[in-house]
From TrEMBL:
PANTHER family: MITOCHONDRIAL GROUP I INTRON SPLICING FACTOR CCM1 (PTHR46128), TETRATRICOPEPTIDE REPEAT (TPR)-LIKE SUPERFAMILY PROTEIN (PTHR46128:SF358)
Stored InterPro entries: PPR_P_subfamily (IPR050872), PPR_rpt (IPR002885), TPR-like_helical_dom_sf (IPR011990)
Name of the protein in its database record: Pentacotripeptide-repeat region of PRORP domain-containing protein
Residue ranges of PPR repeats: 125-159, 160-194, 195-229, 230-265, 266-300, 301-335, 336-370, 371-405, 406-440, 441-475, 476-510
Pfam families hit by this protein: PPR (PF01535), PPR_1 (PF12854), PPR_2 (PF13041)
Signal peptide annotation: 1-23
Gene that encodes it: LOC100777919
GO terms assigned for molecular function: mRNA binding
Transmembrane residue ranges: none
Organism: Glycine max
Biological process annotations from GO: mRNA processing
Keywords per UniProt: Repeat, Signal
Family of the protein in this entry: Belongs to the PPR family. P subfamily.
GO cellular component, one term: cytoplasm
Length: 525
């Protein structure tokens, strides 16, 4: 439901009520100055000329500076010009001012400049309103942009495909694809024909939401209107089919692309397929797709290689993964942080921690900064191999490199403490997690409750379990199984049976892990 536009920009919209539609002559393409520094120094020099230069000359300089994306400089120069008052800023000047402010996300100031346009008697044009809408969308305030659009339309403004494309893009990025489709229909009724880019935005949004069938329907509509599907459309659909687990649909689309002369699969197309196959454990098939990419004259990039390496790592085939890595380097492709993190995680999973640590050293030699994911993989590997001393050295290295520990980091450390029965240290670490403003998830609570149960602290475990609903963290089947097993271990069978009933009421059917300790306890009785 749309918000009331008058609650968003009351002063501006009040002024707009009395503003007539204004259309000025099209803006001319302005010549570029040699360099950014030249343009800025020329601007300052011209401001001190007597008589002052024409505002047209200054606008040309401001426009050329804005094209270099030095938006803070443009804002500073526009502010200086506006305060000086001579020459008087024109509508073009103030439009450049607004454009730069929206790129910087300073929407409050952008709307204050808009108010100046109205107060100085300039007519508000669709171009400036579109710029404001784009700024709002960039800040994630798409519904406010839609309110501005609705208000402007009600005052007689008409907008082009640039405005509609901006709003549709904003809605799709928010996951509001159905709203984007509604705007697409409204646009058509207003006589503005949707183009390929707009359709691609909506198709991509539908695919990301898992609505592949609807996306295919929209593609059929495109074709019916004479809009040819391009490689971006196909890539979105292929990604959607892979994400929905409908791999045959993705292959069918790839074959369709191969048969066409005007649409050719690109590296991104093949990367989607390689990644999907690897995640399904079909690494041999992924390798064949990789080979097909090369056969078609496409050069695999670092993303292609990372996906294939990950496939081998998931299967524990580290020699094959390392071979992909080495061949990538031989072909002149520089491995990135993801490349190393993928291999490090793979080596840690097969307990080859020394090899993982060697790769960390190699990263530093290549001037690559390990991220939190890299460190978390290593921490988990070190913890599972019992290398406690190395583990805490790594935490210090992580902090020294500016990588803040996240919840995954703390979960690994918490699990390590509890496995070594350092219960007090574990409780202190848990309190530290809460104090730093990180919200523990159900995995955190499961690790803590399990450690307390096994450490004979059943009372503390029960207190934390009771707090879960207060903290808004719903227990899962593992939480119940941990508690039932803990109660059984303490001989509290009546409480264990009561919790079993609560577990069923909560929608979790008991499994073998649930019944095994209870059956054993009853047999022992």
């Amino acid at each position: 439901m749309m918000l009331n536009p008058t609650t968003l920009f009351p002063s501006l919209l009040f002024l707009l009520l009395f503003t007539r539609f204004y259309s000025h002559s099209p803006r001319k393409t302005l010549p570029k100055t040699p360099t950014f520094d030249d343009a800025v120094s020329t601007f300052h020099r011209m401001l001190h000329l007597h008589p002052p230069p024409s505002i047209v000359s200054l606008n040309k300089l401001l426009s050329s500076i804005m094209k270099t994306k030095h938006y803070p400089t443009v804002v500073s120069l526009c502010s200086h010009l506006d305060s000086k008052g001579t020459p008087k800023p024109s509508l073009v000047t103030l439009s450049i001012f607004i454009n730069s402010l929206t790129h910087l996300g300073q929407m409050g100031l952008a709307f204050s400049v808009m108010a100046k346009i109205v107060k100085r008697g300039f007519g508000v044009d669709p171009f400036t309103l579109t710029t404001l809408m784009k700024g709002l969308c960039l800040k994630g305030r798409t519904f406010e942009a839609l309110n501005l659009y609705d208000h402007a339309v009600s005052k007689g403004f008409s907008f082009d495909e640039v405005c509609y494309g901006t709003l549709i893009n904003g809605l799709c990025k928010m996951g509001k694809t159905r709203d984007a489709i509604e705007l697409l229909r409204k646009m058509e009724k207003g006589g503005v024909r949707p183009n390929l880019i707009m359709y691609n935005m909506v198709v991509d949004g539908l695919c990301k939401e898992g609505l592949v069938t609807e996306a295919c329907g929209l593609c059929s509509e495109m074709v019916g209107k004479g809009i040819c599907i391009d490689v971006f459309t196909y890539n979105s659909l292929i990604h959607g089919f892979c994400g929905a687990g409908q791999f045959q649909g993705a292959v069918r689309l790839l074959n369709e692309m191969v048969m066409k002369e005007d649409v050719r699969p690109d590296v991104y197309t093949f990367n989607i397929l390689v990644d999907a196959l690897c995640k399904l454990g079909m690494v041999a098939e992924a390798r064949n797709v990789f080979g097909l990419m090369i056969k078609r004259g496409l050069e695999p990039d670092v993303v292609s290689c990372n996906a294939l390496m990950n496939g081998w790592c998931l299967r524990g085939c580290m020699s094959e993964a390392k071979e992909v890595f080495d061949r990538m380097v031989e072909r002149g492709k520089l491995p990135n942080v993801i490349s190393y993190s993928t291999l490090i995680n793979g080596y840690c999973k097969v307990k080859m921690v020394d090899e993982a640590l060697r790769l960390l050293t190699e990263m530093h030699q290549r001037n690559l900064v390990p991220d939190t994911v890299t460190y978390n993989c290593l921490l988990d590997g070190l913890s599972k191999s019992g290398r406690v001393l190395y583990e805490w050295d790594l935490v210090e290295a992580m902090r020294a490199s500016g990588q803040a520990p996240d919840l995954i980091t703390y979960n690994v450390l918490l699990d390590d403490y509890l496995k070594r029965e350092c219960l007090d240290k574990a409780l202190a670490l848990f309190q530290h997690i809460v104090d730093t403003g990180i919200s523990p998830n159900i995995r955190t609570y499961n690790i803590l409750i399990d450690g307390l149960c096994k450490g004979g602290r059943m009372k503390a475990a029960k207190e934390i379990f009771q707090l879960l609903s207060v903290k808004g963290c719903r227990p899962n089947i593992r939480t119940y199984n941990i508690m039932i097993n803990g109660l059984r271990r303490e001989g509290l069978l009546d409480e264990a049976e009561a919790l079993l009933l609560e577990m069923v009421d909560d929608g979790f059917p008991p499994n073998a892990v649930t019944f095994d300790p209870l059956v054993r306890a009853l047999l022992e009785k």
